[in-house]
Amino acid sequence: MNERGIRLPFKLLGVPVLLDHSFLLILPLFAYLIGSQLGSYAQILATVGVNIDASGLEQGATRWLLGGVAAVGLFASVLVHELGHAVTARVYGVKTLEIRLWFLGGVARLDEMPRGRGAEAVVAVAGPITSVVIGALLWLSMPLVSQQAGPALVVSYLAITNVALALFNMLPALPLDGGRILRGLLELFMPHLRATRVAVSVSALVAILLGLYGFFSMNFLLVILAFFIYNAGRAEAQAAVITDAVEGRTVADVMTFDPMTVDLGMPLEQFVRMSNYQPFPGYPVVSSSGELLGYARIVDAQEQLDRAAGDGNSGTIGGPAAAFTGKTVADILLDAETIDPGETALAALSRIAEGQLGRLMVTDQRGHLVGVIGKSDLIRLLRSRAEAGPHPGDPGNPVA
Questions:
Q1: Where does residue 386 rank: exposed (0-12), middle (13-18), buried (19+ CB within 10 A)?
Q2: Residues sharing a CB contact under 8 Å with residue 133, sequence separation 6 or more, in sequence order
Q3: What is the pLDDT of residues 196-238, one digit of tens each?
Q4: How far apart are CA 281 and CA 196, in angstroms?
């Protein structure tokens, strides 16, 4: 188990699968909800011509066993749905970093979203198509289990639920598949940023309507989904602005040149006092020849000093806890997260988001430090972009 969940010890079609901590909580809840409503599901199935006598299934542990099997089958279907996205993205040369199952279903985390004309729409629609195919195959298999009430109820439930999930995912709201399909189609006629803004506006409307419906129908799961969709749509808009700003730029275009560095022998007492002059969380550590050796964080130095002082708390940086200990930067050295100056700024943005330090050390072919790129550099780029004014292709500024 790691800090985010449990990673399966095998890959599916070459894709890692992560079971989020929230998934481990929602799975038994779904098993309980399904098991406690077997009779209701049987009545619903009767309206579509599937008659199952569920009276004998609601006794003892049977209902909970069937509920558990149905819940596992439901999330297995979601996993196959996400594999549909992953396999289609692979056709466009895009790698799927992982598939994560969590309390709202699943998500395939792609290395990047395909940017060819209509490519995002094709990748997005693969998921609902996969779910419909699963539902159809399960429905066609009904004659094989029709003589057994329990399996028949589970198979029919999964068949109908897969189709229902496919339809729900087609709602035109980011980050649902329907919202990505909408943006992918809009990109056939307008730039990515403008297409995103239009799709986000539609997403907000859908989220508001979904939230109102969930509130008045007392379906609070829909209310939670509405909040998620609304906030995710705003995040998509922000990501699109950042992507537009850094697109076509390299790390060398954005990074900070000649950053302040420290050496291995610097005493920690001196190191922590650097925060009084520069608001940086840490500094690259280099040799006398300029070779990058690693990265040192102020907070790690302060913890070392506090531990040496025996007070067991963080203390005040550079305060009384910073009595002389004989410890140096070498005692808190971390592996640096590095990137080549010729890499794209978009790749750097992704690496920073996935990393632990919030900054990347830019090194040349000899391993010498030439610069640093962090969130502050990207913020500075966005600020300069905003001061420059709208670009052609933004809403209200059609391409000439």
A1: exposed
A2: none
A3: 899 999 999 999 999 999 899 888 888 888 898 889 888 888 7
A4: 34
Residues with Cβ < 8 Å from 40, sequence gap 6 or more?
none
Are 108 and 12 within 8 A, CB to CB? no
- Facing residues of 256 across strands? 372
| Residue 43, H or E segment | helix 38-46
The DSSP secondary structure of 338-355, one letter per residue, reads: EE-TTSBHHHHHHHHHHS
Q: CA of 53: how far to CAs of 31, 58, 146, 148, 181, in Å?
A: 20, 10, 11, 10, 41
SS3 239: helix
Query: What's the token pair of residue 328?
Result: 């140096």
Q: What is the secondary structure of 201-218 as a DSSP string? A: HHHHHHHHHHHHHHHHTT
pTM: 0.70
The C-alpha atoms of residue 364 and residue 340 are separated, in whole angstroms, by 6
Order across the sheet with 17-20: list the strands.
Answer: 5-7, 17-20, 96-102, 105-110
